[in-house]
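Mods, move this if it's the wrong board.
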Amino acid sequence: MSRTAQLHSLLAQRILVLDGAMGTMIQSYKLGETDYRGERFADFAHDLKGNNDLLCLTQPAIIKEIHAKYLAAGADILETNSFNATSISMADYHMEHLVPELNFAAAKLAREAADEATAANPAKPRFVAGVLGPTSRTATISPDVNDPGYRNVTFDQLRAAYLEAIDGLVKGGADILMVETIFDTLNAKAALFAIEEYFEQNNLRLPVMISGTITDASGRTLSGQTGEAFWNSVRHARPLSIGLNCALGPDLLRQYVEELSSKADVCVSAHPNAGLPNAFGEYDMGGDEMAVHIGEWARAGLLNIVGGCCGTSPAHIAAIAKAVEGVAPRKPPKLAPAMRLSGLEPFNVGKDSLFVNVGERTNVTGSKAFARMIIEGRYDDALSVARQQVENGAQVIDINMDEGMLDAEAAMVRFLLLIASEPDIARVPIMLDSSKWNVIEAGLKCIQGKGIVNSISMKEGEAEFIERAKLCLRYGAAVIVMAFDETGQADTYARKTEICARAYKLLTETVGFPAEDIIFDPNIFAVATGIE
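Not the wrong board. Structure tokens:
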């Protein structure tokens, strides 16, 4: 049986235990600058203390020992020591060039420890989760208070950084890829895009775990999404699990785990902190206290995978493992099909939904006043139009920048980045509307929620249609399909039906597109065209 099959089999039988904090354990070793440098980096020109991922190269025995302590405590899944091992985060230490080696070493150390524990007790197989952290930058939030449309990282830069890290983790022996501590869903979408790209390029597939971070009692991520909106944004990746970790202790995190448990039709994970940090940045909640909370979660049917984040130790994991032992795992609910969109908040369209109101005034082809604002660079005024649309009841806003006097791609990107800083607008999903694929794709790289692409068609043939549909799915968007094919617009009922049926078959069978995320536009313009 493959490790992936073993993992699925075990998840059906019991709650699996994740390990605890790596940072807490490293701190207990009281390492200094010399320890971080080791012999290899003794003369490195920059300070290295605090670069915990580097210890996979300079102090591998310590990292492996920490893994072994968590395994002895009862952990089924080890997280690799690679939280900051991307070129973006390693730039802080001037060590971008080490990223492939760091990830490979991190996975290899965890693999060795896991295999040794499995060999000692074959009845309890252990697994390695290759960790992809959030990086030190955010694609949704501007670091410049004077320019809300500015970003210091792009989707493509994140994607490239994650691809490099993924390669090392997979080659080092990871069984699972875990995108964790997500405070910005757009960063996570770049990681998930890179994962799917890597899988396709290398003809393999590993289970994927996704874990977000609720930053405070508001119940939202740092980039503003609610838990359900976050799930709607990433569910296209078809993960093994969705969950929450970091920021909060188990007492404050419970309600958000419960929400995910009711909304997600996959496994649910949680690895909370050992409470909130005290005045000295330390965590006071002990393992026994955490276990009381976690045990109640398990008995309430909320969990499939559980462990610990900041402040937790092998003692915490041992207590948690004991608390969930013998408790049946959560059974994912069977949800009715629905198009599950999101901005900062979820917007679900199911069979009982009424008409969906799409605000079209943020469309340069439909509003001369809006077009003039964009052409003249009056983006504050343009944002007021979008805000008014939402306030007046638009459940989705359609954005189109296809105007001859505009650089449509640049205008689309600028407007979307500004919208991201306006919660009263960004709470609703975005419909990206353009006749130019490059404009749509540029827009997809700017929205953290799940939006709608308007549109794709078979006008340029099946191959291009399939390719663009794959990308829409990979970016996490629903699609509008126009009734066009290689011979042009369908002009009869029979032709429209034929084209829609053909497109539907390609989308669902060839691409694997969820049926509930497909919208057909039959292009009915009888009055304007004279067609019957």
